[in-house]
Amino acid sequence: MKRVDAIIRPHQLEDVKSRLTKAGVEGITVSDVRGFGRQKGHSEVYRGTEYAVEFLPKIQVTILASDDLLPKVLEAITEGARTGKIGDGKIFVTALEEVIRIRTGDRGDAAI
Amino acid sequence: MRQNTANRFRPEDRPFKRLTIFFAAVIVAGSLRVCLADEPKPDPAGIATGDKTTAMDAGGNSFVVTEPTDKNDPDFAAKKKAFDEYQAAAAKEPLAVKLADSVGHVRVATNFAWTLNTGYLVLFMQAGFALLTCGLVRKKNAAHLMMLNFAAYVFAFLAYYAVGYAFQFGAVAVNAAPTNLGGVPALNKFLIGSGSWGFLGGHGFFLSGPAYDAGSNCLTLFEVVFMETAGYIIVGAICERITFWAFLLCELFIGAILYPVFGCWVWGGGWMSQLGSTMNLGHGYVDFAGSTVVHAVGGFCALALAVILGPRLGKYGPDVKPRAFPAHNIVFVVTGTFILLFGWMGFNPGSTLGATDLRISVIAVNTNLAAIAGSAAAMLLWYFMFGKPDVTMACNGMLAGLVAITAPCAFVSPTSATVIGVVAGVIVCLGVLFFERVAKVDDPCGAISVHGLCGWFGAVSVGIFADGTYGSGWNGVGANSYLGHAGQGVTGLLYGDTRQFLMQLSGATLCAVWAFGATFVVFTVVNKIKSMRVSPEVEEEGLDVPEFGMSAYPEETTLAEI
What we know:
The structure holds two protein chains of two kinds. Chain A has two helices and six strands, in the order E-H-E-E-E-E-H-E. In chain A, the strands form two sheets. Chain A has a four-stranded antiparallel β-sheet with strand order 2-5-1-6, covered by helices on one side. A two-stranded antiparallel ribbon of chain A has the order 3-4. The longest helix of chain A has 12 residues, at about 70-80. Chain A is about 20% helix and about 35% strand. By secondary structure, chain A is an alpha+beta fold. In chain B, the strands form two sheets. Chain B has a two-stranded antiparallel sheet with strand order 1-2. Chain B is about 60% helix and about 0% strand. In chain B, strand 1 (about 190-195) and strand 2 (about 195-200) form a beta hairpin. The two termini of chain B are about 25 Å apart. The longest helix of chain B has about 45 residues, at about 95-135. By secondary structure, chain B is mainly alpha-helical. The interface between A and B is medium-sized, with 21 and 17 residues.
């Protein structure tokens, strides 16, 4: 079982979500985050004073995937989120030790 | 990597700056017209405005009896007798005549105070519309919306000051002098047209010369805030994707040309107001406070711009079904609507240009009835169609009722006002659905449906519901009697006047054609020279920072520096 966290552009969320559901993913968690990678930010002037706009708004998409679904999930996210320009984001895959569905008590792959 | 965009004119904005400068030059050049001597003198200090000639009783009968000049008039003998009697009485009671001068002055002063104060209420509507539209869009564009509303007031005012007022009211004394304010007789020249066929006024450029007059300035203040209303209406349809420079051009266009031209035709003594006399079309085109002159002009201008700009990114998905972009702040939307309702208490009753016209109370009640009826109708209709009353549609319904009653408010009964409100509430709901789903014109705030469609309907409803109790002698028609009754005012279809209905129908439609057509032609050309839309990257990010260098809610987009 794997946990997949993807940092993507907010505008690409619709696309990523529809590809993931097509790929068979049934649960997604989404959060608003800010960050920068090599994209960095830029500076603006407010009433004569320069300030840095470093952290850009992004969306973090979190999905749990069983090992056999993982390649499809990674492909769905990559295809959905890619625009070709700097700032498209990153995907992190971590090994998931345990997952439990609270309502029923299911564990493991059955709980994804 | 994004460049530092701080305070630099981006190269792609230069064509726009050139266009704006060109436009400004046209305004200046067009305004270099000198008015000559042998004209009524303007009164900038206000010391010669209001005297016994402006003293009237409640029925509008003047204190002073004027000498009859038309020897062929059948009533000539009776009028001459009345005049001679007045002359004799005036000679016997000189103190009474002096008192009449004071009374006439106080009457004009009362009406100055009324007109200016109701004008300030209309000015306050700017804040209401800013809140309303800002609340209806996405958070990332909040500063953009506020700046559009703010800059609309600033730049449209400049254009109106330079040429707009002169175009609209430069000839108002020729056919339709506002006697409540002392007459402004110095505004008596058409630039294009003359007599009963005037098309554009020609006195008062840069509010100088004949317009540097106390009475004229009173009218200016009142009329400029009405123009501003038309100016900000377009914001509701073009927001979230228009560049600031393109927007300023739109505002200059509205303040200098689009609004004043139609405004001259209807309110400035122009040809549409005279069609009652020239072509026997009722009392000519009647629009009391501006359902078409203000709202439909704004609404159909907004339609043309929205069509040229195209919908917001992502508004219509690949399956061409519309996507919702929910309002980011419903609190603003409702507060803004209440402020607009309050301001409308200046908009409609103020259009009498005088507190001495006691129809103001009926107007105020009619305005409120249409407002609540429109809101109730919209809430109920939406509830039956979608299962829940939509807060934003409840607000749009109220505004629809207000827009629709703006033309007929002085001429109809309270029950008619309620009916007009209900119909407007239905129209706005269907209109919003039509533009969103069928026509696929992206209108973020429903401006086209509220102001365009309901404005048109409001003017037409004058021709249906006007009951003849007010407006005797409107546009110079039927001062002695109309449709066989003495004192009969503006009348609609339901009370026996078919020609008025036809006049209203054609006039309102002409307004839509003018506003849409002129805007579409001019701005299709502008858009071809340089796109009026921001780039997709800017639109995605939100226009606050890229266009204005600041966010409306900065703590949420930049971690605050400690």
